[in-house]
Amino acid sequence: MAALAYNVLSVIATAVKSCHELDAGEIEISPYYLATEIRAHYAGMMIAVPAAQWQADDTLTPEQLGRMLINIATHVDPRKLRKHVRGPKVSKKKGYVAGCVARRHVSTARVMKNGCVD
User: Fold this and answer.
1) CA distance 74 to 29
2) How remote is the C-alpha of 88 from its chain's centroid?
């Protein structure tokens, strides 16, 4: 099921890329944002469009379906679906603490006995 879903998302992303003539370096489409966009609009489409309208799409040939996908992809803004690549992490230099300082233990009972409670 996951492979099928990934293939569907890949076909849709390819339709958007080819329709908007995106090169590999220009904008990369995120499968996550694409799936989120589909999920957000699916429920509304099921309410607004009658079931009889969807049944007409069952008889489409692969060429007709491809043309319909390209037609739909023209209305997509690829900048909304852009993959956001995280930059490299900035390494932080760790501070130095001597081992005897790090392992030093102060007994609560000894502090209370000496009367040095803050």
Assistant:
1) 15
2) 18
Backbone angles phi, psi at 82, to 5 degrees: -65, 140
> How many Å apart are CA 108 and CA 8, to the nearest integer?
64
Beta strands in 1-118 (DSSP E): none
List helix spans (H) across 20-107: 31-48, 51-55, 62-73, 99-102
- The model's pTM: 0.63
Q: Is 29 helix (H, G, I), strand (E, B) or coil?
A: strand
pLDDT of the residue at 79: 86
Let me know: does 76 contact 15? Beta carbons within 8 Å: no
> Tokens in use for 117?
């409670």
* Gap between the terminal Cα atoms of the chain: 63
- pLDDT score for 86: 85
Give CA–CA dist 29/81, Å, rounded.
5
Nearest residue to 27 (alpha-carbon basis) of 71, 67, 73, 82: 82
